[in-house]
Amino acid sequence: MNRSGSEAAFEAARRVIPGGVNSTVRAFKAVGGTPVFVRTARGAYLTDVDGNRYLDYVLSWGPMIAGHAHPAVVEAVRDAAEHGTSYGTPTERETELAELIVDAVPSVAKVRFCSSGTEATANAIRLARGVTGRDMIIKFAGCYHGSADAFLISAGSSALTIGVPDSKGVTAGTARDTIVVPYNDAAAVRAAFERNPETIACVIVEPYAANMGLVLPLPGFLHALRALTREYGALLIFDEVLTGFRVARGGVQARDGVLPDITTLGKVIGGGLPVGAFGGPAEIMDRLTPDGDVFQAGTLSGNPLATAAGIATLRLLGDESYANLERLANRLIEGLSEVFRSRGVPHAVATAGSLLGFFFTDGPVTDLATAKKADTALYARFFHAMLDRGFYFAPSQFEAAFLSLAHDDGEIDRTVAAADDALAEAYACR
Ligand code: KE4
Known about the structure:
Layout: H1 4-16, E1 38-42, E2 45-48, E3 53-56, H2 71-81, H3 92-104, E4 110-114, H4 117-132, E5 136-140, H5 157-161, H6 172-176, E6 178-181, H7 186-195, E7 200-205, H8 221-232, E8 235-239, H9 252-256, E9 262-265, E10 276-280, H10 282-285, H11 304-315, H12 319-342, E11 348-352, E12 355-359, H13 368-371, H14 376-388, E13 391-392, E14 401-402, H15 409-428
Parallel strand pairs: 3-13, 5-6, 5-7, 7-8, 8-9
Antiparallel strand pairs: 1-2, 2-3, 4-10, 9-10, 11-12, 12-14
Helix pairs in contact: 2-11, 3-11, 7-8, 12-15, 14-15
The structure holds ligand KE4.
């Protein structure tokens, strides 16, 4: 496949943009080669600057659940833009999107918008610290909550991919306030609370961890976090930036019945435009300025175009949409698993709604330590073999795959067929 256009574009970008990208994972560091520069996208497909077309399983890392350039979303953004792009004042559309979120997410009675998942999680821990008067947070190794300092300790996603899960520039003081324990290890969480019974403000968790690959909670793990945070007077934060309106309309908490104190959201609720959000019960959320004493602000928070795109996207997601997305995800993961099995390749797979993941390891994968046993070199070869066949998976083993309303059974079956051929090529080169 000719990608000379992407190569030239990457050289030009690197001259004026550090690493040639504006978000680390896009640089293909984990899989090698030149990142694909996309020129346009429609439905389930990306088209790069060389005219190569790819069936997209990254979907901008989750937001494009309706597919790229969905007519309803494009029209909503076009119409909003004709009335101005930002006012810096409240608008009724923010209330409309907030009402959709409050109606869908069980634990959320009020929600505050910002412009990214990172802003949402950073504001959420500030709120937890303000409400409890405590400083420390507990996070899980391999979970990723965006690029705010407090989270860049044993972080997942691209921090893990490029080997800087503990970024330079994060102060010792910040790191001291962040306790890191293994995912799925409730005993380690209890031990951390026993060592710090009065100083932990919150536990922040990806209820389905999708930034070290897809790692699902073991039975009882989320319930244990709920009980432990209640026992020790800390808040439980579900970071549903990736899972919110993705694994179900109300996120993990709607599927599994564990209600957090604060929920962070992003991605799908912006329909591809910059939106982050954090919400919870009124008695917690009312602690935010201007009525309360925990500060939050943002020039483009609740932006008219972003809220228009988010509303249009959420309006496209009915119960039947989620049922069909889950059916397609299961069809894909069962097909891939059969390919891996038939080729004798050790693997572990997981699905949740329209989210799926696979590791080249003989599993089970329950935390970062077991995820890191995966054969990332084989993943990189498989990634490129699929890319050359026109299928775009995440350029890192430590990410997940996503489906959209634009994917259909035929495309799933084509993907599985290509995977058989691609794996043979990738496995032969080991
Ligand atoms: P953003 O600041 O990138 O909008 O959101 C941060 C974030 C917070 N919480 C969770 C659970 C997330 O998955 C993310 C962002 N996810 C990554 C993909 N694994 C974004 C891709 C990127 O970094 O470019």
